[in-house]
Write a structure and sequence with these properties.
The radius of gyration is 19 Å and the shape is elongated. It has 2 helices and 6 strands.
Amino acid sequence: MDLTGQVAALAAQVRALQDLMEIRRLKSQYVKCNDGGWPGRPTSHMGSMDELFVEDGIWDGRPALPMKAGRASIKDWVESELRAVPFAIHNVMNDFIEVDGDTARGTWQYVLMATMPDGEHLGFSGNYHETYVRTLEGWRFQTIRAETTRIWRQEQGWGAAPSEPAAPAS
């Protein structure tokens, strides 16, 4: 391979690594938009999650949660229902992302701990199945399908923030 070919191959490798980094950053922004319930971030779902999607994007959590199509529908759902969740923290891991030009597919595993508006403490785990599109604003979600594989109650809650007194042992 001549020097021009080597430079082109290296540029393609750098682009692929940048794409992976930007998609991982997009997922990190998604988590940051959804999580909260501690000092400095007093409630969950305060970010603009809808802005991370393309205009006709889809968030689908069926059967555990609803399907929402379009930025406006996603935004309304967050503002009317999800912001009432006082505590939520996602852990996303084990990503597998495949980029094909200006589109990509990814899967992630997740564990979510949440305190529901009625005070019930629930844990969720499962997989995110996602598609992404490169836009002028950068990578955006085309679809997120949240496949919940387990839901459990956490009777003792999620513990205390460092500035709060710990719950007494039972």
